[in-house]
Write a structure and sequence with these properties.
The protein is of the alpha/beta class. The protein is built from six helices and 13 strands.
């Protein structure tokens, strides 16, 4: 696994090494700041503490580009992973003029990437700061005609509609929100469920998901399981794609 992430003109490193940070600044001419990830993602917004160890002081906001869209965000105030860019592209390539719901939509990265292939996209986000950035990013990318954003708790938001496809990009505890995903689904809806697991656990994860859905009174068909990147040694971020029957 690479020991750092480049997000716009900022690099986040995993260990506090000023010499290494300064060498990265020299190596990457467009980078202005090196941040040290001083803590893990915590709290209901899954944000993390970041410390400036090289470059511009106090700079934690950046403009990031991927898949022909741009997003502005504060990396300490908003959960974000650049390592999911290929996964976002994969999801976009599956969509064919569909209505899509993105649960936990953050700064708007998923809705923005998938908007052009979608009929319409709704995003729900609890973090007020992330939601504010998402609104700005929709305007930045001129996609306000396709994207509808809601600041609120997924479990409390009421939408009098069903969706063709639902994304659940909250791998730590997405299982707690399956009931809510089903509120917005109908027969034939495809759901992308994100979680963490080791390869030896993949079959068990799929079986457990089927059982959880059954307890909620829903039958599903597993369409596939995709690795979305390595989270830690032997552990992957994965997406289980399934259809509501």
């Amino acid at each position: 696994m690479r020991s750092y992430d480049i997000i716009g003109d900022v690099i986040i490193i995993k260990f506090n090494n000023k010499k290494f940070a300064n060498s990265l600044l020299k190596q990457h001419k467009n980078v202005k700041t090196i941040l040290f990830k001083s803590d893990i993602h915590r709290g209901k917004y899954r944000t993390q503490k970041l410390k400036v160890i090289a470059g511009k002081k106090k700079k934690k906001e950046t403009l990031y580009k991927e898949n022909n869209i741009s997003v502005r965000l504060n990396l300490e105030k908003v959960y974000f992973s650049p390592r999911l860019s290929n996964e976002r592209k994969r999801i976009n390539n599956l969509i064919r003029n569909e209505s899509v719901l993105v649960m936990f939509s953050g700064c708007g990265i998923y809705p923005l990437v998938i908007a052009k292939n979608s009929k319409e996209v709704y995003g729900i986000e609890l973090n007020k700061i992330a939601h504010k950035y998402a609104l700005e990013n929709v305007q930045l990318n001129k996609l306000s005609n396709k994207i509808n954003l809601i600041n609120g708790d997924v479990s409390k938001v009421k939408l009098n509609r069903k969706f063709d496809r639902i994304l659940m990009p909250l791998p730590k505890n997405a299982g707690d929100f399956l009931k809510d995903a089903f509120r917005f689904s109908r027969k034939g809806t495809i759901i992308h469920f994100y979680t963490f697991g080791q390869e030896k656990e993949f079959d068990e994860i799929k079986e457990d998901l089927i059982e959880k859905c059954s307890k909620l009174g829903k039958k599903i068909k597993i369409l596939g399981l995709v690795k979305c990147g390595q989270y830690s040694p032997f552990t992957y971020r994965i997406c289980v794609d399934f259809k509501v029957l």
